[in-house]
Every structure is written in structure tokens, then in C-alpha cells.
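Deviations from the work plan: none for this task. Representative record:
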Amino acid sequence: MPLLETRDLSAFYGDFQALFGVSMALDAGDTVAVIGANGAGKSTLLKTICGLVPAAPDAILLDGRPIGGKRAADIMQLGIAMTPEGRKLFPSLSVEENLLIGGDRRKGSGYWCLSTIYRLFPVLAERRTAPATALSGGQQQMVAIGRALMSNPKLLLCDEISLGLAPVVIKDIYAALPAIREQGTSVVIVEQDIVQALAVANKVYCLQEGRVTLQGAPAELSREAIHEAYFGH
Amino acid sequence: MRDPATISGAGARRFEVAVRTSLSTWALLAGACVVAALIAVPWFAPRALLKDLFFVLTLIGLAQCWNLLAGYAGILSIGQQAYVGAGAYLMFALSIFFNLDPVLSIPIAGFVGALLAIPTAKIIFRLSGAYLAVGTWVVAEVFRLVSAQIKSLGGGTGTSLPTEVTSGAASVRFIAEVMGVRAPAARDMLAYWLALVLAVGIVAACYLVLRSRQGLALAAIRDNEAAAGSIGIDRAATKFWVYGLASLGASLIGALVFFQTARISPAAAFSVTDFTAYVLFVVVIGGVGTIEGPIVGALVLFALRDQLASLGAWYLMLLGLLAVAAMLFFPRGIWGTFAARFDIHLFSTRRRLVVPGAETSHTPHPLPNMLQEEH
Amino acid sequence: MMISALDILVQGVLLGGLYGLFAAGLSLIFGVMRLVNLAHGDLIVLAAFAILVLVNWLGLPLPLAFVVAALAMFAVGYALQYLVLNRTIGRDILPPLLLTFGLSIFIQNGLLEAFTADSRRLTAGDFETASIALGGGLAVGLVPLATLLTAVAVIVALNQIFYRTAMGRAFRAVSDDPVTAQLMGIDNRKLFALAMGIAMVVATIAALFLGVRANFDPSIGPARLIFAFEAVIIGGLGSLWGTLAGGIVLGVAQTVGASISPEWQLLAGHLAFLAVLLVKPRGFFPRAVD
């Protein structure tokens, strides 16, 4: 049984429809990349999965059980953690407090805790008492990922983690992905950087204007096919 | 006729922005008839009815002013009693010191009272939202405390209008003669007609403002202040003159109400219950942000008061509970809910894009809110 | 006369302690959920009547009555927030204000019906009139002193909660970003209710000192709200110590006014508030991030 499945998922912002019948499946251990142009619905997809945007109950299944439409806080308890677009760290909290709050409600009995997060991202240990938003963009992204990991999730959703970061910083961040996978967390990455996405994922979905236009393993997909699916022509 | 805009593939189409609807035109005519009937009332009705209508008319006037502030400019004021009292005290001052005829002293007091809005706004507009609301209340308290210090107008216990004005004023005597009644009844009639003029004037003014470009600016500010600013609307100036207009209305009504009572005191003139709580209920129950709403609400409140006034504190408890219930279940009020459901607008202020052959608008789905109550 | 001026200052500071207590609950609620509860003053009065009922009708000693009342008010606050106020939190500022204003009217008149407009007092025996001599002819009442010390203790306790506990972390996170807080597994509805419950406990503490120190009746709620609010604005949004400082500034202003003439007490406080608004619109100790 897939760990996460969406079946014919549609999503709306008021009157505006952002997703049109998106179906995808993720098995435990997968790293899935969702690519697409701006406004294609990638972030919306993640937001429906983590509960910030309403969805039909049966449209999203976790371990076979419907979770569509549940409250975001409840979905987090089920083992889905999100690194939101723009990082969204809490300005009133220090680096360490931001990490702690990620795990306050669901410690689980997993590998990730303060000391292991600091081992993954050593620079954070040096700046643990600083206000989180005083850090550089790349460091903030590390805090955001660490915060999500603190709940030892089954599934980690990463929304545009490379946004606004320099290439060398992006490399550093993606270098952490293997360690995350190793501890048993499956990952969904939303990325605009196609090359980066294809390099880390074993499954790719391409969205265009709210619909899946291409899916498969990176090796199977040709550049032309991706281009066509991404841009629509 | 100008050249119509063309859309690729759609052929030539003319677009119009329309405000008036056929329903609103009929409503206008009906309204004119109602006003005509109201003018004639003193000839037929007993004094008790005059007093009741006076109450409803002044309530409608105050409610429209408050609604303009809250429903359109997004400024919640729980201190408009500041201007009610200011207008009232100024009117008393003009009467007592200069023996002015009420037909003169009421408008003068009204306009001068409204001038206080200028320094007031300069200070309290530094606040916003809920804090601005309580700020307006503090200002009203300051006005009240200051008036209690003015010994020549009765200090803390208040004073009455001199008979030279209540019976001796030229306008009162004129009406007494024409209608063949004694001075007190004539005073009530004068107050009533002035209230009618004021209420109709305020409603008409609100309607015209909202139909104007300034009205569109108001709606924009209310919907999304930051966005309104980014398209060039001068939010500060707009909020300022709306506050000024609302204060003017409140001040005029204050002068009028206390002319009718002929007796003033700081507690009465600056009463939160009479001039804010009741007004608030009227607008909330009738429908915030519509012109018809306060009128409906005033009638409802009047009906309730008639039935329940003897209950004293229970009556106010009921009003409080109604306001709570309204905000939870009927945030648009009676008229607002009705109008949204059936898309009926008597005082039509919405701009509609009229495209020949296009479908009519529909109500949009609600957006997910912060607490995700929908699911 | 120097002693007289010093006396006024001291009395003003002590009065400020009471206003700080009034304001602490308001400040907490606004900090966590951006809600201004216009019924806040009336809830303090409600708490005072609750203590009164427990003392007079159930014969409980004052300290025990206070504890029971505080627990009851916690429950009232929790339920009020969870069932009613949570539904109005959102983008629009009008609904919570209109609703809490209606609530204020409801509570005031409910208390009026239940208890009449008579003035009441909480009796604390000898404690009420006891005073300490500070030397130089200056004496302070034990009650006002206890009020100020309690205000300080309450703020220390609240700050401990906010900065040293997981619950406090959650409060601060929700205050920053309620949407992302949900991603942390935080149930906003319960957290807001908890915050309101805590605020009501603080309100009960304020009510205790209010009732022991002076008379109270159903109609004094709105004035307490105004004092609380003025203290918060003078002190600056976002800082509990700032709120206490604001309360003290207000208390001193009022006491100075009262020394001119009793009628001037309230006016002096309001004028001080308006003056601060004119000169330092963000208050004396605003939070840097807002």
C-alpha cells in the first residue's frame, strides 16, 4: 500500500480552482519531486496534503486511511510535517525554540531530536539562542527543515526550499536529504529548479495549471517530454 | 457614442458601469411617498406618536452615521456620543447665552460641534482597530468630564432650556399659531420636522457619498486597506473626512435631541447606552454596511422597545444577547442576509458591469479561515 | 511641600499596581490572539461578584473564596473563548468588537438584575486598614502595597510561562503566525481558550484587590476597561512590564489630578493618555517586532 495517495484531488481558493483531479502515489522510502511553473498548483498540492487547504476526505489517503479535509494540527499528529514556502519561522522564537516547537506536540520515538538536528546542521548549534529570523536565508531554511524533522514525521513535505538561495547554499541543504531518507522519512519536494529536483528524486510529477501532465522516474523522462509537460508546448 | 471596446473573437461589445437598478428607482419613488406621508403626520397624529417617530428618525440618523464609519470606512467608533453631547451642549449655550431660535442654534451647534473632530482625529487616528475604538470612547469621556466642569451650563447636574427658547422662540410660536396648538406641542412638532429633515438628509447624503467615487474608495479601504493604499487611495484623508461627516451628523442630532428634551446633563448628553449601544444594535441587527440595514434595525429596535421597555435591565440584556447572536449567526444582519440571498438592493450602490447578454453575478464561496471552522 | 508630593507619587505608583493588574489580562489576550475584549472590565466585576457570593452566601473565608472564584472564572473564560469568541477571530475587526460590546452590556445588566445597583465591598478584616510607616511621615496602606507586589508577581509568572514553557512557546508562535502554528500540531482553538482562561484568572486577582480596596457595583466595568486599555497603550503593545509601567504612569497622573480636586482624577488620567498618544504613539516600551 502506498504511504500517501491522492485520488482525483481538486482544490479551490474561494471560487478559483487550483487543482483539477490530481492523482499521485508515494511509497514509503520514496523521494517524490513535484515540478511545474509558477502558479501550476505545486504549493497548493502540498497545502491540501498537510491540511491548510480543504479537500474531499477520500481524495487524500495516508496508509490507506482518508485524511482529506482534516485539520492541519491533526494531520501533523498523523506524521506529516511541512516546511512551508518562505520558511515561515517564528520571529519571536530563537533558533532552538523554533526547533523545539516542531517537536513539542509529537516527539515520537524517532531519531530526530535537538542534538541530532544540530549534528545535521552544525551551524545552527552555534546560533541556537539567536532570534530565528536573524539568520541568513540558507540557515533559516535549515531551521525550517530541522523544525519539521523534530516531530519524526513519516512524510516530509518541502515547499520550494531553494527559493531565494544561492546555488552553493542550495547544495548544502540538499546534501542533508540522504541523512533524512536514511532515518525512514519519505520526502515530497516542490521545486522550480528542475535539475536539482531530478537529481534527488526517484519519482517525478509535473504539474501545469493544476493538472498532472507528466509522471515517472527521472531516468525515463526525456528533456523534451519534461519541457512540454512544464510549459505546455 | 464612443467606439465600443473590442475583444478578440468576441465582436464589438459595449460595456457600461451601472449603479441604479429598476428596483432602486421604484424604491426611490416609494421612499418619496413615505417621506411625504411623514411630513403630514403632525396634522393627524397624537403627541405620543410624534415622540415615537422622533425617536426612530434620530436613531436612523445616528445609525447611518455610525454605519458610514464602521461599515464603510472600517472605523469602529464607540464614542460618537462625544459629538452628540458636544452638539447638545453648544445648542444649550447658544440658547441660554444668546437666546437663539432653535432653527438657527441647532445647525450652528451641529457644525461647530463637528469641528472638534479635527483635533480629535489628529490624536486618536494614531491608533487603529480595537484600540481606536476604545480611543473614541476615551475622547467621549473627556468631553463628558469637561462639560461637568462648566458651571454656567449646570456643571455635573445639568440645566434646562430657558422658556424664552422652548416657548418663546419665533419658530415655535409660528408653528403654534399655524397648527393651533400650545407651545409644548408646537415644540414637539418642530423637533419632529427637523428630525425628518435631518434623517432624510443624512440618508440621502450617505447614499450620494457611496455612489460617488469617494464611496468606491471607502469600500476599497474597508475591504483591504493595504491594497487600497497601493492603488493610490489616500486612506488617511478618506478616513478623516468620513469621521468628520459622521461627527457632523451626530452633532446635529445631539443638538436636536436635547432641544426636544429641553433638559441636559453630562451623563445624559454623553450616554454610551443611548447613543452608542442602541445605535450599535440597530446597525448590527439591521445590517452593517448597507443603507437599508439601519432603517430596518431602527424599526426592529423600536418594536422591541415598545414591547419590552418595562423589563428594564432584562431588555438591555436581551439586546446584548442579540448582538452576540447576530455576530455569530447573522453577521450581515436582517437586511444584509435578506439582500444577499435575493440580491435585492433598494439603495443601490454597487457598481455592476453591464455586458449585454452576460449572466448575472453570484455569491462566491467562502475562503478557508484561520481556524478552519468549515471543516 | 515635598512630603506631600512624594506621598502623591507613592500613592500613584501603588494605584498603578492595580491598573497593571487590570491591564495584564487585556495585554495577554491581545498579544496571543489580537483580540480586544470590550467586556474585559465587566468580567473583572463579574469575578468580584463571584468572590462576594462565595464569601457572603457560602461563608467561605476570603482566600478560599478567591481560589474557587479563580477556578470558576478560568472555566468561564475557556468556555467563552472556545464556544463563542473563537468564531469571530479572523480578518474582520468588527465582529469580535461588536460581539464583546454586546457581551459587556449583557454582563453589566445581568449583574444589575442579580445584585441591584448597590455598592459592594470585599471585607478583609484588619488587613484593609493596616499600613506600614515608611519613615519621614510617609505611610502606605498594606492593601495597595500588596496590590503592587502582586502585580509584579503576576507579570513575573506570566513571563515565566511565556519564555520558559512549551505552552509559552506555543503562545508566542501563535501570536506570530497562527497558520504555521497549526503545522506544528498546535490546536489554535484550545490554545486561545487556554489563554483566555489564564487571563480570567488574572482578572480574578485584579477583582480581589479591586473589591478589597474600594466599592464596586455592576456599572463600573467600562471604566476599568478604559483604565486597562490606557495602561496598555501608554506602556506600549507587546510588553507586560511595559503594561505595568503604563499603569503606573496612569496611576500617578490620576493621583496628581485628584490632589487638585476629586473631579479632576479621571480627567487627568485621560489627558495623560492623550498626551502620550500625541507624543509617543507607540507607547514608552513598544515591542520592536510587530
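Residues 45-331 of chain B form a domain with the ABC transporter involved in vitamin B12 uptake, BtuC fold (CATH 1.10.3470).
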